[in-house]
Amino acid sequence: MHYQLFSPQTLTRRSWLGITSASTALGLLAGPPAYATPQQTPEKQLIVHGTTPMNAEPALHHLVEAWETPVKHFYVRSHAPVPKVDLNTFRLKVEGLVENKLSLSIPDMLRRFPQTEVTATMTCAGNRRSEHSLVKKVGGVQWAAG
Hints:
Blueprint lengths: L12 H17 L11 H4 L1 E6 L2 E5 L1 H4 L12 E2 L13 E4 L7 E4 H7 L16 H7 L11
């Protein structure tokens, strides 16, 4: 089932908060992602560049097999290990320069924000960094074309 949470003309900070909060909640409820441990890599068919934090990409030939990339070929870009979260006590706090401060539990977010599915294009800014490094060394994870 698809939900339209907003149209391009009506994206507000409140609807953006709803979308990102729901995504966070669903990610936490699902537990650590399957790709968070290196032993899962063969099923995902990824080239691993590092395991703590996890950084991996698919082989380029897998990306041209279909218009939509299957989950097993999603790249993984992490800047830190996957946190361990107590789902019974976790709260997402929204504060700072906002009109209304929020403190939401996982059940609050699941109740307030429906699950949604969006087809989107994502790319890592480091794509093909390894090729750049052949000319002049570039710091960071040496991503290939995947």
